[in-house]
Amino acid sequence: MSEKIISTKSEKLTAVKGMNDVLPPQSAAVEWLEGKVRSLMARYAYRNIRTPIVERTPLFVRGLGEVTDIVEKEMYSFEDRLNGDPLTLRPEATAGVVRAVVEHSMLYDGGKRLYYMGPMFRHERPQRGRYRQFDQIGAEALGFSGAEVDAELILLAVALWKEVGLTDVRLELNSLGQPNERAEHRQALIAHFELHMEVLDEDAKRRLHTNPLRILDTKNPAMQAIVESAPRPLDYLGAASLEHFTTLKSILDANGVAYTVNPRLVRGMDYYNLTVFEFTTDRLGSQGTVCAGGRYDYLVEQLGGKPAPAVGWALGVDRVLELIREQGLGAVESTLDAYAIVSEVTALPLVLQTLQTLRAAGVSVQMHASSGDGMGSMKSQFKRADSSGAHYAIIFGTDEVSQNLVTIKSLRDGGGAQASQSLNEIADWASTLQSRT
Ligand code: ATP
Ligand code: MG
Quick one: which ligand is closest to 20's CA? Predict the structure, then answer.
């Protein structure tokens, strides 16, 4: 092992920069969002797919394009130590999903609607809204060519914003056209930028002849003016591409979805054609894109499958959650029903037995655990019960236990109300709880 790997024994180990721990109670917000997404995906008939976090490097190089930020500088790539295979931590999931769809011939009996959730890895400069490990939730519809599926995916995202209460999210749309139209636009772009060589930065110069569309995606303020005046993909669309775009817009109009056409919108990966879109907000500073996607009708073929159209989007979970917090939403309440207070260590077998019954009946209950010198004072246990957020304290006092009962005390609404409950009928109490919620 190299010296770098062997660390001094007592040295404190920390997480990798840009890769964050998600701790309770914040983790509840992630679960809450994921729950909303699962229920929504079911209603839109999208089914879950789980692909590996590690894929072969050529999948991304071929899939996303060699001259993209991700492939040029953001991938965590390494060699499999045993056989030297070039591997990469997935920077996004579309390529892996397409690989799986092709590998398992999933389109043999028609199109598939899929969704995923999970971590992605990109070696970027860590800052607000930009991490090296971050979660994405994505939806992909493969095998469908019509604009109504582009619309369905956009409506699905809009429904999610509504479901979680977000209002400050704008939709921007554009169409990049088909490969032949893109080729023409590309020639015009190169000609345009060649007239402004002095303004191009290093990245742009390098990409001028390999991938000039990428230049439109620049974040360099000094280049904004020449990007603004550059030829627009929209002006190169033929009749069929225009009709696809018009159909999408008319479905969105009919559904009351507000959008702006942004003729400058291009995406960071090469696989897109026709529709591209982004949901953005002003509330998150410069990392304002919360969800982005588009059509990628040539990726399946490019990754070795039988040609099949496809469209999808991915949203940044970290940014969506920050926006939810920013808008003061999604504060997750404690879901704990009860806290078990125990006066004697000897009662613990009975306590655990009783809690098993309650939990099987759907009650969430936290047990007070002993410390080195016993259960601790009743006063300190009540304090714990209060701060746990539980609705009730279940008191296993010495007297109670000797009579085979517990005292149940309300900790909410001013607290105080209490009643005895026989342990033989503890499940009855559980059912009164369930009927109230
Ligand atoms: P950006 O222009 O912000 O770099 P991108 O074009 O690289 O975004 P996509 O690859 O389309 O983003 O990913 C979809 C979404 O995933 C983004 O809109 C964003 O919400 C989120 N995302 C992308 N990169 C990161 C990151 N490093 N940290 C957190 N979220 C991210
Ligand atoms: Mg990026």
Answer: 1
Atom nearest to 69 CA in ligand 1: 7
Domain ranges of the chain: 26-177+237-326, 338-436
Torsion angle, CA of 336/338/343/349, rounded to 10 degrees? -90
Distance (angstroms) between ligand 1 centre and the Cα of 372 equals 49
The CB-side HSE value for 300 (13 A sphere, CA atoms) comes to: 27
pLDDT tens for 75-95 read 999 999 999 999 999 999 999
Question: Residues near ligand 1 with C-beta < 6 Å?
Answer: 92, 122, 124, 129-131, 134, 136, 268, 287, 289-292, 314-316, 318-319
Q: Which helix (H) or strand (E) holds 392?
A: strand 392-396
In whole angstroms, give the CA distance from residue 316 to residue 292.
9
Is the pTM above the cut of 0.90?
yes
Q: What percent of the chain clears pLDDT 90, i.e. is strictly above it?
A: 84
Which string of DSSP letters, residue by residue, matches 251-319? HHHHTT---EE-TT---SSTT-EEEEEEEE-STTTT--EEEEEEE-TTHHHHTTSPP--EEEEEEEHHH
The H-or-E segment that residue 380 falls in is helix 378-388
Distance CA 108, CA 193 (A): 44
> 26-177+237-326 maps to which CATH number?
3.30.930.10
Amino acid (1-letter code) at residue 289: T
pLDDT digit string, tens, across residues 152-171: 999 999 999 999 999 999 99
Are 337 and 391 a contacting pair, CB within 8 Å? yes
Cα end-to-end distance, the chain, whole Å: 56
Superfamily designation of domain 338-436 = Anticodon-binding domain (3.40.50.800)
- Band (433; pLDDT cuts 50, 70, 90): confident
199's CB contacts (< 8 A; 6+ apart) are: 222, 223, 225, 226
